[in-house]
Amino acid sequence: xxxxxxxxxxxxxxxxxxxxxxxxxxxxxxxxxxxxxxxxxxxxxxxxxxxxxxxxxxxxxxxxxxxxxxxxxxxxxxxxxxxxxxxxxxxxxxxxxxxxxxxxxxxxxxxxxxxxxxxxxxxxxxxxxxxxxxxxxxxxxxxxxxxxxxxxxxxxxxxxxxxxxxxxxxxxxxxxxxxxxxxxxxxxxxxxxxxxxxxxxxxxxxxxxxxxxxxxxxxxxxxxxxxxxxxxxxxxxxxxxxxxxxxxxxxxxxxxx
Length: 257
Known about the structure:
The protein is about 20% helix and about 25% strand. The protein is an alpha/beta fold. The chain is globular, with a radius of gyration of 17 Å.
């Protein structure tokens, strides 16, 4: 199975017009089984930004699994909406499903929302026990969790708060966690109290100019390839008008290790 993992599109704050078409063409050429978008489709949760994001996602043709990010929450100058209906526009224009799922060929993917209205940057995973319930009893399948806010700190990335309930979500049964938010690409493994190891991956910003050091002026996304006995994560980098492999796979591991 092939999954294209896109994050932090930020319609309303694009790096350049060409990057949007280049990303679409590259993803389309890969013909992934799933396009997973880990939040921040918009810059300020404006109607025109959501409309453009909806049109863009609908053009892919492949199944899309989407979760909201903190930039998809009602903006701070709409305090009533931010507090009481923070994801109203996201629900209207993108999807009303805040826990989307995808199951195919021994791979199970669950998306969860970590975006809410009482914060600017931080995130919160609601009801992590529901994640555990969804993953429970499926140890023969490869299980993936998609969430906007990171569930752990990453070496070489400016320290920020991790999502509230992040540790509980991390221990809930996923083999791989896909997230964004920090606009820097990183992958590492985390040892859990039960002896398992979960792979946690950040993707860079796919299309915006909100780059972060040490990957300034770079638009990136990830391609996850899952085989019978292994999986790999490859980065693809926007360069000279097109996306190309950023180098060798940034992560490789046997599925059952």
